[in-house]
Amino acid sequence: MMEKNQINKLVNELITLIEKGNAHVSLWDATAKLPADLRGVVPESLPYSIWQLVEHLRIAQKDILEFSVSSEYKEKEWPKDYWTPAHEQVSDEEWENALNEIRDDQKQFFALLKTETNDLFAAFPWGDGQTLLREALLIADHNSYHTAEIVVIRRLLNAWK
After folding, report:
1. Residue 2 confidence (pLDDT)
2. Per-residue pLDDT at 145
3. Entry's Pfam families (predicted)?
């Protein structure tokens, strides 16, 4: 059994991984200073825009959070419920609301990780063996994968550093 100090260190590492990316760019860096007119652009030979990726991250992360807190969780239909249709114009309000919701859901998930009564290694009674640790790693992995896609699209659109 891990000591409380070790658990706290693990939780802090998980939070840093999700929030800052460690060895890769964070979502916040990948989306910073993106020209508004490029949010909805779908580059040639790619299936989605940066907006669709941000929305997918928002939806998937919220789904993971909901699964992690509720035995009443209702599974979404893949892929229909996880991807938004393309649209060229994305308002500042839509953009900021999506990014703020991602941040807020991360804060809620971090609170779950920090709650001492939550066992990182215990399987959720309503799942198939998933644990809070597994869900944290899933968020980190999924977000980093799609964040890299955002960077690639920005490069294709000549909108990266």
Report:
1. 85
2. 97
3. DinB_2
**Residue the block writes with tokens 């709650």:** 115
CB neighbours of residue 32 within 10 Å: 10
pLDDT at 22 (0 to 100): 84
Tokens of 74: 């209702």
Question: Can you tell me the distance from the alpha carbon of 88 to that of 69, in angstroms, rounded to the nearest whole number?
Answer: 35
pLDDT digits (tens, 9 = 90+) for 21-77: 888 899 999 999 999 999 999 999 999 999 999 999 999 999 999 999 999 999 999
Residue 158 in tokens: 């000549």
List of long-range contacts for 39-47, beta carbons under 8 Å, 24+ apart: 39/90, 39/95, 40/86, 40/87, 40/88, 40/89, 40/90, 41/88, 41/153, 41/157, 42/86, 43/153, 43/156, 43/157, 46/153, 46/156
Cβ-in-10-Å burial (0-12, 13-18, 19+) of 1 comes to exposed
Using alpha carbons only, give the angle 156, 146, 6 rounded to the nearest 5 degrees: 140
Whether 101 and 58 have beta carbons less than 8 Å apart is answered as yes
Indicate if the pLDDT at residue 1 is higher than 80. no
Q: Which superfamily is assigned to 4-156 in CATH?
A: dinb family like domain (1.20.120.450)
